[in-house]
Specification:
Number of domains: 1
Number of strands: 0
Mean pLDDT: 77
Order of helices and strands: HHHHHHHHHHHHHHHHHHHH
Radius of gyration: 22 Å
Shape: globular
Helix content: over 70%
CATH topology: Growth Hormone, Chain: A
Number of helices: 20
CATH superfamily: MFS general substrate transporter like domains
Low-confidence stretches: 481-494, 496-500
CATH class: Mainly Alpha
Structural class: mainly alpha
């Protein structure tokens, strides 16, 4: 078990690192490969495929067992990393990132499912703490690792992709030691239509937010057509999931408040977290003039506090069996961190910035991984993989939507603050290229970028507050087992809501 846990932690680390390690390298990548208008897609491409792949991997784990699927996901991740690391042009890099994200989605979903099948719910709290350390460290240490890799001799920024391959291969060797437990034969075939509609709805949402206002004006027929297609796919997907014999994301699971709140809170906190992980490192480089290594080191307050908070939460959950105080406190601190970062300026004191990042780090450390545990504990043994994947899917979708939406806000503010006759995307580049601009242009870039980032953090405040309200509404159930809140009776085991006719969420009738 220790070797398997080490493999799962290593796999989770590289799967989580893929989204954050690249943030600090974006200015350098843009300077070398060109295509500054495609730079936001370097982050969004992996987030997009990770989002749509996560529930598919999770559902497959409930049908086929998590071990072999986790090994397959690691293989996909290695292939994508190799393609991105050797990319000669921006288009190839984006393709590699898309493949890498598809593998990372499986890693994030299946590491939780693998450990959940080996330990009881109460003991899972201890492993949740370790998983939180791995996820949190990768999420926030990405800028530090990326800064060191970008400044390393040889491939430079390409190490951000090539450097994770040995870790992924080592993780696969350890995961291979886990017992292969195949669940009972499924009663129905794979819901291919539901998976396709789910993919179309999630990916269309991210593309809409990424392209709207940049590739196409918001008030244009392509934007309207894509929005209509996204809404149509979402509506058809919900209908298909309610009718399918074995749906990808069973609506009956969302009858359980614990799972629903975990997913909603994860979505909101995932969106807020993006601001600190993706855009703060760029602020430290573009606005403050630090190189990649220095910017990574300056992110340490967020890294250290997240590690400590996640470890402490996991140990206390195992000891007490209680979990609600941690996401409640965490969401409150995430809200406070967003408030502290919203008045950001080019001259914000270093102590203020470090303190705000520390508050944000503690908040995310107390929240993110605990939500996966809550989701898994809300369902029966046969749905643990799907529930964990649903929570991870929601968190990843929130991050993808956050990258796209906040990137659109940042781009709009930069366009409005750029001198006439200049394009903001042509002025952004490496810290050295910004510093080499004429003084008035460099000052304009720094001021407009900071204004945009300040607007981003201001927008995250109500999102974090909504996450706090959501988690306050859930009823806490001690983590003694998976089915404390279910009583006898076949209908009750499938849906905890017992209406007179049909459940409004899953459409089932009482039995």
């Amino acid at each position: 078990m220790p070797a398997v846990l080490a493999g799962a932690l290593a796999a989770l680390f590289v799967g989580s690192l893929t989204n954050t390690v690249v943030g600090i390298a974006l200015p350098t990548i843009a300077g070398e490969l060109g295509g500054q208008d495609q730079v936001p897609w370097v982050a969004s491409a992996a987030l997009l495929t990770m989002t749509v792949a996560t529930p598919l991997w999770g559902k497959a784990a409930d049908r086929r067992g998590p071990r072999d699927l986790l090994l397959a996901a690691l293989g996909v991740f290695v292939a994508g990393s190799l393609l991105a690391g050797c990319a000669p042009a921006m288009g190839v890099l984006l393709a590699g990132r898309a493949v890498q994200g598809a593998g990372a989605g499986g890693i994030l979903a299946l590491t939780n499912a693998l450990v959940a099948g080996l330990v009881p719910a109460r003991e899972r709290g201890r492993y949740t703490g370790w998983f939180g350390v791995s996820f949190g460290t990768a999420s926030v240490a990405g800028p530090l690792v990326g800064g060191l890799l970008v400044g390393a001799p040889g491939p430079g920024w390409r190490w951000c992709f090539l450097g994770v391959i040995p870790v992924a291969l080592g993780a696969a060797a350890l995961v291979r030691l886990a017992p292969h437990r195949v669940p009972a034969a499924p009663r129905a075939g794979v819901d291919l239509l539901g998976g396709a509609l789910l993919t179309a709805g999630a990916s269309g949402t991210v593309v809409l937010l990424s392209a709207g206002g940049r590739t196409w004006p918001w008030a244009s027929w392509p934007t309207a057509a894509l929005a209509a297609a996204v809404l149509g796919a979402a509506a058809a997907g919900v209908r298909q999931e309610r009718r399918a014999a074995d749906p990808i994301l069973p609506p009956r699971l969302f009858c359980r408040r614990g799972l629903t709140v975990a997913c909603a809170t994860g979505f909101l906190v995932g969106a807020v977290m993006v601001g600190g992980v993706i855009y703060l490192p760029q602020y430290l480089q573009v606005v403050r003039g630090h190189d990649a290594t220095e910017a990574g080191l300056l992110m340490l307050p967020q890294v250290g506090t997240m590690i400590v908070a996640s470890t402490l939460a996991g140990r206390l959950i195992t000891r007490t069996g209680r979990w609600k105080v941690f996401p409640v406190t965490g969401c409150a601190l995430v809200t406070a961190g967003a408030v502290l970062l919203s008045p950001l300026t080019p001259d914000t004191p270093a102590w203020w910035l470090a303190g705000a990042m520390a508050v944000l780090g503690v908040g995310t450390g107390l929240t993110q991984q605990v939500l996966v545990l809550v989701a898994q504990n809300a369902v029966g043994p046969g749905d643990v993989g799907t529930a964990g994947a649903a929570a991870t899917f929601s968190r990843t979708l929130g991050g993808a939507v956050g990258v796209a939406a906040f990137g659109a806000v940042l781009s709009a503010r930069m366009r409005s603050g750029t001198p006439p006759g200049q394009e903001a995307r042509d002025l952004l580049g490496t810290p050295e290229s910004v510093a080499a601009l004429p003084a008035h242009l460099a000052e304009s870039v720094r001021a407009s970028y900071t204004d945009g980032l300040s607007s981003v953090f201001l927008l995250t405040v109500p999102l974090a507050a909504a996450a706090l309200v959501a988690v306050l509404l859930v009823r806490e159930t001690p983590l003694e087992g998976r089915d404390q809140d279910t009583g006898p009776g076949p209908y009750r085991m499938m849906c905890p809501v017992r209406p007179r006719s049909r459940c409004a969420v899953c459409g089932q009738s009482p039995k």
